[in-house]
Amino acid sequence: MEELLKYLEMVKDERQQHKVQHKIYDIIMLVFMAKLSNANEWTEFEIFGKIHEQFLKKYLELANRIPSHDTIGRVFGMISSDYLDLFQKKFNEVMNSEEGSKIKRVLGIDGKNQRGNKNKNQEKANHIVSAVDADGFCLGQELVDEKSNERTAILELLEKNNIKGHIITTDAMDTQIAIAQKIKNKRADYVLALKGNQGILHENVVDYFNDEILLEKCDYTKTVEKARGGIEKR
What we know:
Blueprint: H1 2-8, H2 24-36, H3 42-51, H4 53-56, H5 69-76, H6 81-95, E1 106-113, E2 127-133, E3 138-144, H7 150-160, E4 167-170, H8 177-185, E5 189-192, H9 199-209, H10 212-215, E6 224-227, E7 230-233
Parallel strand pairs: 1-4, 4-5
Antiparallel strand pairs: 1-2, 2-3, 6-7
Helix pairs in contact: 2-3, 3-5, 7-8
């Protein structure tokens, strides 16, 4: 936290200082903490600040209490996107340290093609594998040549990041023994998707859940709901 606060002091404030009532790094840190609590709108940032004002004052000055949502929105419209990108990288560094391992998170790992980045010198779009938490913070990325190389990139991503104590999720294509073993070796948990094209493994899981004696020995949750025009059982 102290390292992040020091970095905040480097931001350039373009406002007319004689009109300033709220320090710019107070506003950035307010939004940052609110985002960690799943706030997404300017009004939600203001409400979060008012509810947790006493806690925030342990780290921030807040000389004129909590800024309004209009003020928060105007200030963020003036801040350089490069600065915010660097701030996110600083946060990622903290999350990948031993300090970050104290916070249990769900990290979704998935690969996506970047649209619109093909050109005469690049025949195919970039395919990037990312690890993203529930608050939208990207903790790491790997660029791969082909989608078929995604599994290798995931293993490298897991190796580089501190995932101890977290829950890792992937789609069915990446439900592989090597990936599951890497997650276990890094002392994390996993939730991996499974489809019918994973022949033997899928059949084994179906048989397991059809065996009432085996189910009595484990904890599980079952839901049945109507969605997308059909009945979904989970």
